[in-house]
Design a protein that fits this description.
mainly alpha; elongated
């Protein structure tokens, strides 16, 4: 239970950080005129929470020692991408009426960005494992 809460907290933290940074980018891109109506901001925050949960909760799969790393990765990224893509369409991150080509391009960009974040976690965790293994070798 503690692990899933930690995973969700990390997922929400990353989601909100990306949400805030992308808000800054869009604000600058639109010359300080960033118009929100029809509860757009509320919908985006709820979408951000859903994406944080969609990426954070499935990360608990990495604590299962019986599964291969590849299966864990597929489960985590598969669930995260489905939740992210569905949320993006519902909330309007991918606006209604967007061409198929542009929607696919946005989804590919989202996947690439998700893979960069996943790779950062992988590298961090690999370094932690290497440190622990080195310490165990020193003790033996």
């Amino acid at each position: 239970m503690k692990q899933i809460i930690k995973s969700i907290a990390i997922g929400l933290g990353i989601a909100f950080a990306i949400f805030c940074l992308s808000g800054i980018v869009f604000d600058i891109d639109h010359g300080g005129i960033f118009k929100l109506e029809n509860y757009s901001f509320t919908k985006m925050v709820i979408g951000c929470i859903l994406m944080g949960l969609g990426w954070g909760a499935p990360a608990v799969v990495y604590s299962n020692e019986k599964m291969s790393s590849g299966i864990k990765c597929v489960i985590h990224i598969g669930i995260g991408m489905v939740v992210q893509t569905v949320t993006a369409f519902i909330v309007g991150y991918i606006p209604a009426g967007t061409s198929i080509g542009k929607a696919i391009l946005i989804i590919v960009f989202e996947l690439a960005f998700a893979m960069i974040i996943w790779l950062c976690f992988f590298i961090y965790n690999k370094k932690q494992v290497d440190k622990m293994n080195k310490r165990i070798q020193e003790l033996n």
